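Ticket #194: bound-state structure for uracil.
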Amino acid sequence: MSLLPQETLSELSERAQTCTACALSQTRTKVVFGSGSPTASLVVLGEGPGAKEDEQGLPFIGRSGNLLQELLLEELGLARDEIYITNMVKCRPPENRNPAPEELDACRPFLLGQLKALNPVVIVTLGNFATKTMLDTKHGITTLRGKTYPSTLCDAPVVPTFHPAAALRGGRDKIVAMREDLFLVKGLLEKAGR
Ligand code: URA
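RESOLUTION: The complex was predicted; output attached.
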């Protein structure tokens, strides 16, 4: 049982700005804590910031972010500022490599704090890395997507889908699959009356 009071998203974000808990803090330009509504029912979770995100301090602002926004709007009727978008790690891994286990461990308290503060109805994980980490599984996204899973970190169910960057490379089939996965999310949100 934690004796610490729950921090708000802005308190957590403020603390993250000066975090030096792992080596990514030495190479980052900006901390990419997360963005969106503090009352969001849907949390979208990526892997880690890329170059553009590192420059601007905001998650998913490149081409893959545009595709993500388009799909969320078309399938769920939700704009970027009505959901909450963040990543497993809040600082860019150099050369966009996967975050290392010690970097994930160092950043986990921020993700846990975000999920606790938001208490979402559903979490969408984007791509292999975020999905495998959240579900603690070795199975890949192609096998896992299309279904709902319990989260290892909070009460909200997890709906895994392709990373929009993979969908941009992989063409129509992956985009169709992402739309199907978001249809699952729609059902969960509706069931919760959101
Ligand atoms: N890819 C991610 O996983 N996260 C971002 O914020 C941008 C690209």
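RESOLUTION NOTES: The domain at 9-191 is CATH 3.40.470.10 (Uracil-DNA Glycosylase, subunit E).
TICKET STATUS: resolved
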